[in-house]
Design brief:
The chain is of the alpha+beta class. The chain is 30% helix and 19% strand. It binds flavin-adenine dinucleotide.
Length: 513
């Protein structure tokens, strides 16, 4: 909408700058300053609530050409930067642009449509995954295979990071489930890319932290959407047994038995309403009291493995037999288990209920000092012993996810940095801070310090690990993060964004002047 204004005076706008010359930031900003500019305060914060950075303009492009014009103009300015903002759900200012231009990707069209062969859907880069689910299921009875737990995230935002959930072991992450993209590069060009055409750009952008171009459209493969999901949780007291079972499920030769594998750590305490025993039951009206199963020696935390099987017809799809076959091989505490049959859309939308509860309790608005790690299977038992059982033994006021996935589900040509081992775990510390006058800030600082302590521990033990959705503020840390991939990341930046106009909130490169 905003940049469409430029359509009225295209020659005048492009006439502001001539090749090889830069124009002052003020001149460029004045040229795109119209009445319906978005509220910059919205673009000055994100879900993390710990970083505040005010852009000069918050624009709402409605077409890829709008995005191209904004990038073209910023590239010709003396020092303006541009950040695409999906739904602002990163937690470290990654979608911000201090003094620059933030593009609200939620306004981007055109709407979703089926690809010609009917096996994929074309979606705008700013669409939410919840909207993709709703559209594909209701229009075609199909759906993309790979999801995130929470669906209030944009396609462009998760493709810039990875996009992982319990389907990952079977179908790979969301970045491995893209057929083609339209990307606007900082030279203002709209480029189609895929594994066979402009493939370097395609793989650079996937997990590329918004550094190489803005995703304006993505083509996502579709599978038949099941009607129902058998959703099961089982509890373990011993992490090694939990991890052994989880790894056997995600590496079994025939992965078709299960459609989803996740897990989480919870506090061995009935009185913790968020991270304690009561976080285990699937349905709200059931309670969990594991005391009859527990030995006095059981530790401060317990472990829950979460599984799902998709089906249409319970009998015809043999769901009971498939579930029985899986459970028979697992070594959880028999009796400490929960099960529910829910609709597929309800299952994928399950975190919406958590969101509603957090909004009602005020914890959706307080800071979220989250830490996500990928940790190799070889280090996860030691990590549990030192981090879950010691540092985090009292919980974090939110979920502590831990589940394995396979590296072979990713593609080494993508920008994303991963541990070296074939099986690695996502550890997600999804902290929610209780509201209270003056207290939330202090609690957030303490949580940040605990995150730093965990990172120091991982480094000192020499774990094979990477931060997922990383935050660093100097080049040395970024180089260490990418390791052997750093040289290629820098080369790609030189190739696609030599002036470092894009995604300044990641603090990787400085804008050339
Ligand atoms: P933003 O946060 O707005 O942007 C993130 C980065 O991507 C920024 O650098 C931005 O400039 C860039 N970007 C955004 N759009 C584009 C685009 N179109 N083209 C190029 N660059 C772009 N992640 C998972 O993998 N699995 C989960 O289960 C999961 N659950 C989550 C649950 C919650 C409640 C929250 C808050 C986050 C969760 N995440 C999860 C993290 C999520 O993947 C990141 O927050 C991610 O950044 C997507 O959020 P977003 O769409 O709001 O993008």
């Amino acid at each position: 909408m905003m940049i469409a204004y430029l359509d009225h005076h295209p020659h005048q706008q492009y006439g502001l700058v001539s090749a090889g010359e830069s124009t002052s930031d003020e001149t460029i900003l004045c040229a795109i300053d119209v009445d319906d500019a978005g509220d910059v305060s919205v673009a000055s914060r994100d879900f993390g609530g710990g970083v505040f950075s005010r852009p000069a303009r918050f624009l709402r492009p409605s077409t890829a050409d709008d995005v191209a014009r904004a990038l073209h103009l910023a590239g010709r300015s003396a020092g303006l930067t541009v950040a695409a903002r999906g739904n602002g759900h990163c937690v470290g200012g990654q979608a911000m642009a201090a003094g620059g231009i933030v593009l609200d990707m939620r306004g981007l069209g055109p709407q979703m449509s089926l690809a010609l062969d009917g096996a994929a859907v074309d979606v705008p880069g700013g669409v939410l995954w919840s909207e993709v689910l709703e559209w594909t299921v209701s229009n075609k009875g199909m759906a993309p295979p790979s999801w995130t737990d929470y669906l209030g995230l944009t396609v462009g935002g998760t493709l810039s990071n990875g996009g992982v959930s319990g389907q990952c072991f079977r179908y790979g992450p969301q970045v491995a489930n893209v057929v083609e993209m339209e990307v606007v590069t900082p030279d203002g060009m709209r480029r189609l890319c895929s594994p066979s055409s402009n493939s370097d750009l395609f793989f650079a952008v996937l997990g590329g932290l918004g550094q190489f171009g803005i995703i304006t459209r993505a083509r996502l493969p579709l599978l038949a959407a099941p009607k129902m999901v058998r959703w099961r949780r089982v509890v373990y007291t011993d992490f090694e047994i939990f991890a052994g079972d989880a790894e056997s499920l995600v590496t079994q030769a025939d992965s078709s038995t299960l459609d989803y594998v996740e897990g989480f750590v919870f506090v061995n305490d009935v009185s913790d309403p968020v991270s304690g025993w009561n976080s285990v039951p699937i349905l709200p009206d059931s309670a969990f009291d594991p005391s009859e199963f527990l030995a006095d020696s059981s530790g401060p935390v317990l472990y829950c493995l979460e599984l799902a099987l998709y089906y249409d017809d319970r009998a015809a799809d043999h769901v009971d037999e498939r579930e029985e076959e899986t459970l028979r091989r697992l070594r959880y505490m028999k009796g400490a288990e929960f099960s529910a049959d829910v609709g597929y859309v309800e299952f994928l939308s399950r975190v919406a209920k958590v969101e509603a509860k957090a909004r009602a309790g005020g914890t959706w608005e307080t800071p979220h000092p989250w830490l996500n790690l990928f940790i190799s299977a070889g280090d996860i038992v030691d990590f549990d012993r030192h981090v879950f059982q010691c540092i985090l033994r009292r919980g974090i006021g939110g979920p502590m996810l831990v589940y394995p996935m396979r590296r072979s589900g990713w593609d080494d040509r993508m920008s994303v940095a991963l541990p070296r081992s074939e099986v690695f775990y996502l550890v997600a510390l999804l902290r929610f801070i209780a509201p209270g006058p003056g207290e939330a800030g202090e609690a957030a600082k303490a949580a940040e310090e605990q995150n730093r302590q965990i990172l120091r521990h991982c480094r000192s033990k020499g774990y094979d690990f990477k931060v997922y959705i990383p935050r660093y503020d100097n080049e040395a840390d970024w180089a260490a993060h990418f390791g052997g991939g750093w040289g290629s990341f820098v080369q790609r930046k030189r190739r696609y964004d030599p002036m470092a106009v894009l995604a300044p909130g990641q603090n990787i490169f400085s804008r050339a002047r």
